[in-house]
Amino acid sequence: MVDELILSRNDLDFILFDWLKVDQLNQRTCFSGQDRFDYTSVLNVYESLATDLFAPHNKKNDSNEPSFDGETVKVNPEVGVALREFSIAGLMNAAFPAEWGGMNLPTTVERAGMAYLLGANAGTAAYAFLTIGNANLLMAYGEKDLITPYITAMAEGKCFGTMCLSEPQAGSSLADIRTRAVSNGDGRYRLFGNKMWISGGDHEISDNILHLVLAKIPDENGQIPAGVKGISLFAVPRKLLDESGRPGERNDVVLAGINHKMGYRGTVNCVLNLGEGKFTPEGKSGALGHIIGEPGKGLAYMFHMMNEARISVGLSAAALGYTGYLHALDYARTRLQGRPRSDRDINSPQVPLIKHADVRRMLLAQKSYVSGALALCLYAARLVDDSKSLEDKEERDKINVLLDLLTPVVKSWSSQWGLVANDLAIQVHGGYGYTREYNVEQFYRDNRLNPIHEGTFGIQALDLLGRKTRINDGLSVKLLDEKISETIKQALSIDKLQSHANKLDQAWKEILRVTKSLHSLEDLEVQLANAANYLEAFGHLVVGWLWLDQAITIYKTIETSSSSDFLNGKLAVCDYFFGWEMPKISSWLAVLDPVETTPLNMPEQWF
To answer: Cis before residue 594, ω within 30 degrees of 0?
Structure first.
């Protein structure tokens, strides 16, 4: 069965219902009237779509990527079919509030369902992810009268969304963007500039595309303001809406060319030119768009979508790592090769790969990374639900601070170690692993994009150490400390978890000490020089904490469970993580206090 090679439903159900207890969300007004049956039924639909419509064309997406003939972008027809059925099933707006025609599904459940689609076909699923994030930003900051036609069309799969941040000369340095937004005199603006790396930027899958574009409004002298404070956000449709709210005249947004990536090949990724004059909406050049919110606050608004996208990138990495692990597990169970060291008789039958200790080590490592990443992503999604549904404002504020701290970890740890899992999946396959006849090499290539998507590992590290651990006088770290300390306290009361609890406690105290030491440094260049190692250590600590927290749940339920093999397997993976992975933390911290400065101080010419 294809679905059994995408995700483990046992693991997904355990994380959602036994550990995160999402079915208890119905005790809150926001999710009243929902129950576990509803959530299970919706997950079944996601799983069915992933199996029947997304997975079958994954390899076709990879070998027949989108093409551009100078006028039209051609995409495999199966992409449109899958996304239409996804929309018809009500899943594009599954987590939208009821006032916007959605099911008001908890984010945790919706993300769990989307993990199936990402594991089945990340290239096709990306269109849906971007559209959902686009709509969520519009609902948070847009004027209702202006955005309603777009939200309605997105829910129906008739309009897809993008995010347009980077530019060819600026990359991740958004302070240096040059796209200009000039007043049209009627409340709208005409945009002129170029945007790079735009996923879903042009296609014929939907009737329309809505681009969320960062641009700067020139001052009275025609000069664009410097820095990020001058950035505003604009909604720029591919086609202008007519009086009835339907797509009509073509806007001045033109595809300049497609980027050819090593993975995610089913997703159109392109350079867009705005205002080049190929089209003249309402008789003039310039891409017409509406400003979202207030001028100069565009980057703050865009962070709503960016942070959602970062969690989505982590989820994509977890799903791709997970399907790679399941493929490797299936191969290791069925591929006969070699004999145990205790039986070297050439006439004796060969044994499955899984009988070899080193293969089991690689499978354990993969499972610890991918299941840990899935738990991390869904834990973050649960925080999103708490931030929406808790009635106490002070508690909601605390949840948002904790989520803000963990977002760079969710994005970066999952994308880094999900990729390591894919690498190990290839290794388990041996020589077959890097041939295109087997799926694991594509999973690796698809997943290799995620450490770069939505901010590189290094950028996330600077964000974590330089900002997230500092804001509100370190409140975010204090809140995480409370969570970790509670888990350690509970684990110490369980004999088989006491050693893990002590390791977690020791590692966490060391991270806290190093954090304080780094924050005390006056030289910011030195303080942040080895931020990547800090993120490595911090991320491993957080995932170790979540593994221990799940183990506590298991020990509370294992005697009454009929899934003892599954639960014992999770406990073994927890043991593996504490035995093999947690010791890595001390080596990452070793170059942080004192700061090892060779990379910082080495002159360029020495390279």
So the answer is: yes
Identity of residue 139: M
- Own/partner pairs for 70-78, CB < 8 Å, 24+ apart? 72/204, 73/202, 73/203, 73/204, 73/255, 73/258, 73/268, 73/270, 74/204, 75/203, 75/204, 75/205, 75/266, 75/268, 76/266, 78/53, 78/124
Q: State residue 2's pLDDT score.
A: 47
Q: How far apart are CA 128 and CA 111, in angstroms?
A: 12
Q: Which positions ≥6 away from 71 have C-beta within 8 Å?
A: none
- Express each pLDDT in 23-66 by its tens digit: 999 999 999 999 999 999 999 999 999 999 999 999 999 999 99
Mean pLDDT over 463-488 rounds to 96
- Number of H helices and number of E strands within the chain? 19, 12
Q: State the Cα–Cα distance between residues 225 and 573, nearest whole angstrom.
A: 53
In angstroms, rounded to a whole number, what is the distance separating the alpha carbons of residues 507 and 540? 10
Position 262 pLDDT exceeds 60 = yes
Instruction: Find the helix or strand (DSSP H, E) in which 162 lies.
Output: strand 159-164
Cα separation, 320 vs 82, whole angstroms: 19
Bin 581: left if φ > 0, else alpha if -120 < ψ < 50, else beta.
alpha
**Alpha carbons within 13 A on the beta-carbon side of 450:** 35
Which one, of 301, 355, 385, 357, lies nearest residue 20 by Cα? 385
Tokens of residue 56, six digits: 């079958």
Query: Torsion over CA of 157, 159, 162 and 168, rounded to 10 degrees?
Result: 130
- Say how many C-beta atoms besides its own lie within 10 A of residue 249's C-beta: 14
Q: Is the pLDDT of residue 414 over 90?
A: yes
State pLDDT tens for residues 553-597.
Answer: 999 887 655 668 999 999 999 999 999 999 999 999 999 999 999
CA geometry: angle 485, 491, 493, nearest 5 deg: 115
How many angstroms separate the CA atoms of 208 and 161, rounded? 9
Question: How many Å apart are CA 335 and CA 219, to the nearest integer?
Answer: 67
Q: What is the pLDDT of residues 504-552, one digit of tens each?
A: 999 999 999 999 999 999 999 999 999 999 999 999 999 999 999 999 9
pLDDT tens by residue, 172-195 = 889 999 999 999 999 999 999 999
* Closest by Cα among 182, 184, 188 to 146: 188
Tokens of 24: 């208890």
Q: How far apart are the first and last CA of the chain?
A: 51
Yes or no: say if 23 and 35 are a contact pair by the CB < 8 Å rule. yes
Is the distance from CB of 322 to CB of 119 less than 8 angstroms?
yes
Average pLDDT score over the chain: 95
Q: How many CB atoms lie within 10 A of CB 240?
A: 20
Residue given tokens 């006056």 in the structure block = 522
What is the model's pLDDT at position 1? 41
Contacts of 273-278 with CB under 8 Å at 24 or more apart are 273/193, 273/194, 274/179, 274/191, 274/192, 274/193, 274/194, 274/195, 274/213, 274/236, 275/190, 275/191, 275/192, 275/193, 276/252, 277/252, 278/252, 278/254
Structure tokens that stand for 117 in this block: 């689609």
